[in-house]
Amino acid sequence: xxxxxxxxxxxxxxxxxxxxxxxxxxxxxxxxxxxxxxxxxxxxxxxxxxxxxxxxxxxxxxxxxxxxxxxxxxxxxxxxxxxxxxxxxxxxxxxxxxxxxxxxxxxxxxxxxxxxxxxxxxxxxxxxxxxxxxxxxxxxxxxxxxxxxxxxxxxxxxxxxxxxxxxxxxxxxxxxxxxxxxxxxxxxxxxxxxxxxxxxxxxxxxxxxxxxxxxxxxxxxxxxxxxxxxxxxxxxxxxxxxxxxxxxxxxxxxxxxxxxxxxxxxxxxxxxxxxxxxxxxxxxxxxxxxxxxxxxxxxxxxxxxxxxxxxxxxxxxxxxxxxxxxxxxxxxxxxxxxxxxxxxxxxxxxxxxxxxxxxxxxxxxxxxxxxxxxxxxxxxxxxxxxxxxxxxxxxxxxxxxxxxxxxxxxxxxxxxxxxxxxxxxxxxxxxxxxxxxxxxxxxxxxxxxxxxxxxxxxxxxxxx
Length: 464
Known about the structure:
Blueprint: H1 8-20, H2 36-69, E1 82-84, E2 92-94, H3 96-110, H4 116-126, H5 139-147, E3 154-157, E4 160-163, E5 166-169, E6 176-179, H6 186-202, E7 217-219, E8 227-232, E9 245-251, E10 261-264, H7 265-280, H8 283-330, H9 338-367, H10 375-390, H11 397-407, E11 410-413, E12 418-422, E13 430-440, E14 443-451
Parallel strand pairs: 7-11
Antiparallel strand pairs: 1-2, 3-6, 4-5, 8-9, 9-10, 11-12, 12-13, 13-14
C-alpha cells in the first residue's frame, strides 16, 4: 500500500480520483475489503508506513553523520577527478587523467584569464573526457568545478536541509568538514573564487574595444577596479559627419564605487607603457627585481599560511570547548544554569565568527598574491621585446598586455589625480599628476611627473 502513497490523505485523494474515472485499485499485499473496516486498516497501514519511512531516513542520516565525523566520503557519487575507494582513509582516490583536466581548468582560469566559454572551447579542442564519457562540456559543469572545495582538499557534509522544494543552508556550526587528498593547492582555489567574486561585483562583460590597462587601474581609496568605457561624440551641424571615439577608465558611485572619476586611456596608457619600456630595456633590473620578487612571494605565502594554520587550530579548540560546555551543562552534579550556559556558548560563537572572518580575509590576501613569472620565460620574452623596441617597431597591443601580465602591473589612481605605478620586477614608485581642467573634452593633460628610484615596490594587498 505504501508504494502508492505513505500519507493517508494523499492515498485517499488518489483512490477517489481513480474511482471517479472508472478505475479500481487493488493492492498485491493486504486484503482490504471495501468496507469501513477495510478503510480503517488502510489508514493504519499507511500511517505505520509513513512512520517507518521517517525512522529509516533518520537512521540513514545518523549513519552518514557518524561516517562523516570519521572523515569518510558520504556524498554518494564521487566528483569528477575522484573515484570511490573503500580502502582509502578518506574513501576517495584520485583519477590522474581527470585530475590533470582539473589542474588545466584552474590554470586557464587563474593564470591565463580564460573565460568559462574559452575554457569550454579549450577542453573540446584537447578532447578532454567527462566523467560519463562525453567530450561536450557545459559551462555549468566548468563553473561547478571552479566552485567545488573538494579539489582544494576538503568538503562539508550536513550543509543544508530540504524545506519543501528548496535546499536551505544550515548554520556553519552544524557543518561537518571532511578532509580529502587535494588536486590543486588552496591558494589556486582561492584565486579562482576571488576572480569569480570580482566578476559578480563588476557585473560587466568583456569590453567591446581593446584597452591596454583593462582591470589594471584601481582606486587608491576603495581598491575597486576602474571600468573601461568608450564614448562616441555626436554629429554636429556643419561638421564632416564623422563620429569621434574617446576611451576612458571610469569610476562611478552609481556602481558602488567611492567617487566619480575618470582618466583618459590615451594619456594613462602612454605614461604606464613608457615606464615599463624603460624597465624592459634594462635586463639587469629585470633579473634583480625577479629575485626580490621570488623572495618576497615566499615570505608572504609562508606568513599567510602560518596564520591560517594557527586560526584553524583555534577553531578546533573552540569546538572542543563548546563540547565540554555542553557536557558540563548536562551533568546534574555541576548544576550549570541555562542562562550561564547560553552566555558562554554565545561567547564561543562570537569568537568563532571572528576567526572565520579573519581566515576568509587571509585567504583572499593569499589569492591576490600572484605567482612570479618563470625567469627563463621572462628573459626570453624581454629579449624579443627589447629587439623590437630598439628597432623602433611598434609592439602590438596583445604583446604589451602580456608584458603587463608578466610584471603584474597595477595602476593606483588617487582622488587628487596622482597615479602610483606598482607591480613585480623592480618597478619603482611612479607618481603622476593629471590635470582635470580639460581644454578639450575627454583629453586631460599631464602636469608633472616625479620618480622615486629607491627600493622596488612590492605587491599591495587589499587589506593594506
